[in-house]
DNA sequence: TAGTATTTTTAGACATATCTAAATTTATTT
DNA sequence: AAATAAATTTAGATATGTCTAAAAATACTA
């Protein structure tokens, strides 16, 4: 189990929400900032080791054991994120990169103790669910992308995509964090941007941002 | 800067207390549980990169920059040890191996915050000094090996060698931890073992153990 | 000091993970 | 359906860090 293996399985897991369940070589390569040829090499290795099922020119799916490993890596990553945020006071745009390194320290015992020390957090600072020791994800209010709501809807943010720390800084400035409540004011069809009201301030969210935020509809 | 580089520089630093200051290839290989030929290869690379000065068949010494790196690794290692012990409740024989992995996460900012969170500890759980952010080691009472004292001396343990967790378990059982006070009762010349009184219990320490404990003489 | 033993280095090989460039397969057009 | 475009794979190379076996240098000893 190498760092590289960890990263590939985690990437494949997070890209698995496709129609057929297959994840393409290019998607993996892009996610991991590497070349498609490198991804192919690695995928073949993961296949031989039983972590993924690979069909040439079609893509990969995680096996049960591969999924288990991916969830362990994600668990470690998110628990470390909570630690860095809650205990060391890092801003939420800073925790991802550090957790990216800490997640490769593989001691189930240490992670369990850390989880207990943090009082069993269920979600990381971006609102992503933390798998428990046997890979179960906590239930979360049914959420959809912010750009899928209708004008007039009152919603509560459940999570935001953590892949761009620049965007996180921007979002925090407007208090667009998990738990925040907002109202959809307008939808602009020409560029899919939306106008929302949050804490009495009205701001414009680009299509890219709106699709990076997940929220639940509030009972009115 | 790889994990391997970290480990070699750390090993060389800890082996540098020789007469001439040179550390031999074999010593490094043994410390890192690898083969002398591997150590030679790596040493040549470290030399090319400017971390050590290498003379064939003689050994290596750390350069100033190499020493700086080594102290950074040691700093990270020991601060993590304190965290694992103080905050996560790991026993002192368990922290070394975990810190061995955590020490390779290289973020000066994170370590500084962790240090602050732990309230600036000066020594790790085994009594070893923690370098500050610019590599300065805290002053420590003048300590010598336990087997160098005389019968009748009252001494206080300052540190114990942390390389064998089995020994640490044994020592903890008899409260032979940093800070503990004891009296040298007898010295057996035939095997260099010593008898000491600690917390009203008299125990026998083998030569190996006695030489793994550092202590300071107490004013009587 | 010559001979033996030990330490250290070299030569050549291997595994991991990556890359570039070229070949192949699949998808899309016209 | 043929031609073109895009995605994917292969072939061959590179860098890192390790190993075994053999050669070279140093240290010990008789």
Gyration radius from CA atoms of chain A, angstroms: 19 Å
Largest sheet, strands/sense/barrel of chain A: 6 strands, antiparallel
Number of strands of chain A: 8
* N→C terminal distance of chain A: 49 Å
Q: Give the mean pLDDT of chain A.
A: 94
The chain-level structural class of chain A is alpha+beta
Principal-axes shape call of chain A: globular
Pair of chains with the largest interface and how many residues each contributes:
A-B, 16 and 16 residues
The poorly predicted ranges of chain A are: none
Beta-strand percentage of chain A?
15-25%
Summarize the amount of helix of chain A as a percent range: 25-40%
Secondary structure layout plus pairing:
The structure is a homodimer of 220-residue chains.
Chain A: H1 3-14, H2 25-31, H3 36-48, E1 52-55, E2 59-62, H4 64-87, H5 95-102, H6 108-117, E3 144-145, E4 154-160, H7 165-173, E5 181-188, E6 193-198, E7 201-205, H8 207-210, E8 213-217
Antiparallel strand pairs in A: 1-2, 3-8, 4-5, 4-8, 5-6, 6-7
Helix pairs in contact in A: 1-4, 2-3, 4-5
Chain A binds a DNA duplex (30 and 30 nucleotides) through helix 3.
Architecture overview:
- The structure is a homodimer.
- In chain A, helix 2 packs across helix 3 (about 35-50) and helix 4 (about 65-85) crosses helix 5.
- Chain A is built from eight helices and eight strands.
- In chain A, the strands form two sheets. Chain A has a six-stranded antiparallel sheet with strand order 3-8-4-5-6-7. Chain A has a two-stranded antiparallel ribbon with strand order 1-2.
- In chain A, a hairpin with a 3-residue loop joins strand 1 and strand 2 (about 60).
- Chain A has helices at about 5-15, 25-30, 35-50, 65-85, 95-100, 110-115, 165-175, 205-210; strands at about 50-55, 60, 145, 155-160, 180-190, 195-200, 200-205, 215.
- The model of chain A has no long low-confidence stretch (mean pLDDT about 95).
- Chain A has about 220 residues and is α+β, with helices and mostly antiparallel strands.
- The first copy, chain A, is globular.
- Helix content of chain A is about 40%, strand content about 20%.
- The interface between A and B is medium-sized, with 16 and 16 residues.
- Chain A binds a DNA duplex (30 and 30 nucleotides) through helix 3.
